[in-house]
Amino acid sequence: QVQLVESGGGLVQVGGSLRLSCTAIGLTFDEYAMGWFRQAPGKEREIVSCIRWSDDGTYYADSVQGRFAISRNNAENTLYLQMNNLKSEDTAMYYCAADWGGSCRSHPDDYKYWGQGTQVTVSS
What distance in Å separates the CA atoms of residue 105 and residue 50, rounded to the nearest whole number? Predict the structure, then answer.
């Protein structure tokens, strides 16, 4: 049984930082592209960032480019999202997701496995 378990969310002030983690259980981690998505109330789920399994190539949404950094540790089956200079508009539930053999795709439907989410709230 595959599980993705996120952690690291919380309440932070504008300009602050958080580091999200996602531990994968039950899948061969280094065969999957991994992504971070977020969903704010009343909005659709959107890609934040993803990282390919093959060459660690990355993608960032324009809204987080230069502030967020995605990384992975295949030996520990863990995905990270370092979030710096947080803004109020970054407030959302953040999800990690796995896409088998994926090339870092941006649509949620492309991802097979999902975590339960971790809440990030940025206060002004």
Answer: 8
The CA distance from 83 to 63, in Å, is 12
**SS3 of residue 67 by DSSP:** coil
Closest CA to 18 of 57, 65, 67: 67
The total number of residues written for the chain in this structure:
124
14 and 124 Cβ atoms separated by less than 8 Å: yes
CB atoms within 10 A of CB 3: 12
Task: Please give the DSSP secondary-structure letter assigned to residue 26.
Answer: S
Amino acid at 97: A
One-letter amino acid for residue 52 of the chain: R
Structure confidence by residue, pLDDT tens digits, 60-116: 999 999 999 999 998 999 999 999 999 999 999 999 999 987 788 999 999 999 999
